[in-house]
Design a protein that fits this description.
GO terms for molecular function: histone acetyltransferase activity; RNA polymerase II general transcription initiation factor activity; TBP-class protein binding; translation initiation factor activity. This protein is mostly helical. The chain has one domain: Bromodomain-like (Histone Acetyltransferase, Chain A, Up-down Bundle), CATH 1.20.920. It is built from four helices and no strands. Helix 2 runs antiparallel to helix 3. The two termini are 27 Å apart.
Length: 77
């Protein structure tokens, strides 16, 4: 998973919930730690900040996201 793939999924309206979106951002963070902890120690902290920022924006926009997810479930979008 990478940011360009997330952008593509957003543009194609492939996400059905914020959990799906967050999972992909989490996957980037997980991979950053798995593949870079020893070799590129500066990358994992940046990935952690990305996930924290994602969580912050998801919390900040909770009301709008809840309404959007309800529209997806009823196909009223």
């Amino acid at each position: 998973m990478d940011l360009s793939r997330i952008r593509e999924r957003v543009r194609n309206m492939e996400y059905k919930s914020r959990e799906d979106f967050r999972h992909d951002v989490w996957q980037i963070t997980f991979n950053a730690h798995k593949y870079n902890d020893g070799r590129n120690p500066g990358i994992p902290p940046v990935a952690d900040m990305l996930l924290e920022y994602c969580d912050s924006l998801l919390n900040e926009n909770d009301e709008n996201l809840t309404a959007a997810e309800a529209g997806i479930e009823t196909k009223d979008f």
